Amino acid sequence: MDRINPYKLKISQLRALVAVADHNNFSEAALHLDLSQSAISHAIANLEDELGVLLLSRGRHGAHPTPVGERVIAQSRQVLQLLEGIIKEANREKGLHGGQVRIAAFRSVATHILPSVIARFRRQFPAIMVAITEFDDFTGVEQSLRESHADIGFTYLPSGEEFETWELLRDDYVALLPPNSGFRNPKITWEQLAAYPLIVPATNSCSLRIRNHLRTAEYPLKIAYEVREDSTIVSMVTQNLGAAILPRLAAEPLPPGIQVCSLPIPLQRIIGTAVLTNALHTPAVYAFLDALKNLGRFSTKAVV
């Protein structure tokens, strides 16, 4: 038996074979590939000669794969898909020599998460510009994504169905007690927390979340201050103006003297990254998402 030289097989022959299999007809396959019918027939005939087997049975009702033809067609599809992958990788690399990634984030993520990600990303792709827009709350982030003002957003999960999301981290809400509290326990009770004027964030989602959580308290708690800036809240606690409830990430870095305690009933926010579903993203955007995932913080499972 003569040995078949695989390097004599041509991509054009595989494309013709797959097209005929898809359309069950030489003439329609020719129209699909923008070639003449004779060119299609010639390509497949040469392929069959090279392989020494009949791949298609021709008849009055069109062309249909033989049993061996079915197997060869399946592998031909794989070859063509691999070639498309090669082209995508090349185009992606060409697209990574410039461009921009637009990021929307609320402040605690922009302060504590993004700098290390961007530093890693810029070492690998120094020509890509990264633009960050900060928002007080995740609602501004999601609106920026919807209006195509941002490519990647950092938001709370779960989010709307229009986004594809990945979990980044889980951030516990904590109680911050002033330096004069003398409190040294890692967890505070509702009764102990009720002894302080409370300082909470003024952003709608965070304030609402905390207020709803405080309804589970066994003692009435008084919110004395609602403050927009996280850093201002921490400064007020430092000045012994009250105790605060904040996400741990938003509270950092903490000045000396402030005591951090777990809440009597745990409260968490799930922070994730989001992109608009079915949006056309540039290679630079995909590269930045890879940089986030490679940090080891990401779970690739979408939160539902």
TrEMBL record:
Keywords: DNA-binding, Transcription, Transcription regulation
Gene3D superfamilies reported in the protein's UniProt record: 3.40.190.290, Winged helix-like DNA-binding domain superfamily/Winged helix DNA-binding domain (1.10.10.10)
GO MF: DNA binding; DNA-binding transcription factor activity
GO CC field: cytosol
Pfam families assigned: HTH_1, LysR_substrate
Annotated InterPro entries: HTH-type_LysR_regulators, LysR_HTH_N, LysR_subst-bd, WH-like_DNA-bd_sf, WH_DNA-bd_sf
Domain HTH lysR-type: 9-66
Family per record: Belongs to the LysR transcriptional regulatory family.
Protein name: Transcriptional regulator
